[in-house]
Amino acid sequence: xxxxxxxxxxxxxxxxxxxxxxxxxxxxxxxxxxxxxxxxxxxxxxxxxxxxxxxxxxxxxxxxxxxxxxxxxxxxxxxxxxxxxxxxxxxxxxxxxxxxxxxxxxxxxxxxxxxxxxxxxxxxxxxxxxxxxxxxxxxxxxxxxxxxxxxxxxxxxxxxxxxxxxxxxxxxxxxxxxxxxxxxxxxxxxxxxxxxxxxxxxxxxxxxxxxxxxxxxxxxxxxxxxxxxxxxxxxxxxxxxxxxxxxxxxxxxxxxxxxxxxxxxxxxxxxxxxxxxxxxxxxxxxxxxxxxxxxxxxxxxxxxxxxxxxxxxxxxxxxxxxxxxxxxxxxxxxxxxxxxxxxxxxxxxxxxxxxxxxxxxxxxxxxxx
Length: 369
Known about the structure:
Helix content: 25-40%
Order of helices and strands: EEHHEEEEEHEEHHEHEHEHEEEE
Number of strands: 16
CATH architecture of the largest domain: 3-Layer(aba) Sandwich
Shape: globular
Largest sheet: 8 strands, mixed
Strand content: 25-35%
Radius of gyration: 25 Å
Number of domains: 2
Distance between the termini: 22 Å
CATH topology of the largest domain: Rossmann fold
Oligomer: single chain
CATH superfamily of the largest domain: von Willebrand factor, type A domain
């Protein structure tokens, strides 16, 4: 059964506690059932409640008591009785819109500015999309970064190098006063080592606090950690447009997640968070873990850097910086959208010669809130 996590304090940091995964509304909680069981059980619970005589009498009473009010409201003369304008009644109808962040570069690698919807060619599962409702450019965005350390036993030899990479980014690229970052570690559970801060010294201290826990089984829950990080911790500066990314230090091996990859990717996409990953192993076509990292990065608009050494580390961090500072935000209404949970492949291009566009490879067609 997929799981979710809620934060609670401990002596060593903020831990994310496992709870039952829910696709229901926030005020409805059913614990301990699979999705199929829950979906079958809820209608029967509601049905049995209706059959109870007291429930029926209560609803009948409420209906009778509300009739005079409804009738009276219908007989009130139109027009305000004072100088205060009446508040208009608005019916909000949800629409299926897909938000897509992308980066555009010219032939020299410089950010491409002033793109128009007419300059873009967008397809959704091979179907040309013409209903672009918004296209907005952003430059020099503030950064919101999560440094996510795989703390399973298989990553013990790489921990020192990964800490050094984080310190390099925090000391040389993080802008004080505008950027914020947090540091987390995970194995079978996720632990916050440093909550959101713009202080590079505190971020470095958070990295130093990351430890391999010898008393835990050598298994990993990458998808759970990505899902809960985006869902529970990405509320900082809610509503502000920022360049959001997770820098994941991992070999990509997931042994114990309750969430599926599709759910982790969807939650990252809802918070417009790209996943960049650093693997300390050379690229191999036979590694299932590296394929997982490739899929996570490709589907969220990030990249994977394999075994970076020396000056290559700095160059890779500058790539992340350039891609996240300057972005476009596109919103479109897909043709014949069906919320069936299937993955839709996106292709975004530009006919301007030499243009390179970087974006995620698609989205999962889950119902949009």
